[in-house]
Amino acid sequence: MGWWFQERIVDTGRLPLFCFFTAMVCGFGFIRLSVRLIRAQVRWWPGNITPGGLHIHHVVFGVVFLLVGGVAQMVVPDELTAGRAAAAAVFGVGAALVLDEFALILHLRDVYWTETGRTSIDAVFVAVAVTGLLLLGLRPIGIEDFDLAESAYAPSHPILWGLAFTVLNLALAVVTLLKGKIWTGLLGLFLWPLIYIGAIRLARPGSPWARWRYRRGRRGQRKLARAVWREVRIRRPLIKAKIRLQELIAGRHNQRTGLPD
């Protein structure tokens, strides 16, 4: 295990990213444990921070951690790997605290334990997934110095070929996102075959693409009917499974108004 960590993480310069990823996951786990204990009114847990009756949400502390970690990253010299890793860890904790209340920031009201509050969990899952892919060494489309341009298909115009390939993939990623396939579009930025599949397949019924393209004509109506059928028969069971996983990790979001956290 030690040699793997040294070879894959330290020697490749990914130690700060590893510390950020680990701190973000641990920070999210800790704050979710904390809010669940507070919600259960466990007596031995400290509880909310309410100086003078003002409830201070943990997103405030997250912003402070983000500022400290971000500034430290710019101040610490590049050769001090341990210092940069520590700063990345602080930044990761801040990111976890902020993303855990992403829904609150988005709606500008306390929706923490409501159905809408699940947006925060989705945001954390996306951040963890993207950071994990980066940690594994995968790079987003367009950040590969046009490696594909060196192929035999365009030996005389490598830069133009690489640029065209990147623009095409980014355009397909946008189409996939407009079709309501968020995970496919985001992961497709790293695993580009996914965005080809997402761009070709039917859009989700409530997506912008469906509203623009499936409302007119018989062909559009047939596509909309098929999209609705897939949503009901295939996607809804998957969404229910995802919600069960979210509730297992983060607690049940079943209240009309958010509670103090």
UniProtKB/TrEMBL annotation:
Record has Transmembrane as a keyword: yes
Signal peptide: none
Keywords, sorted A to Z: Membrane, Transmembrane, Transmembrane helix
Transmembrane segments: 15-35, 56-76, 88-108, 120-138, 158-178, 185-203
This protein's name: Integral membrane protein
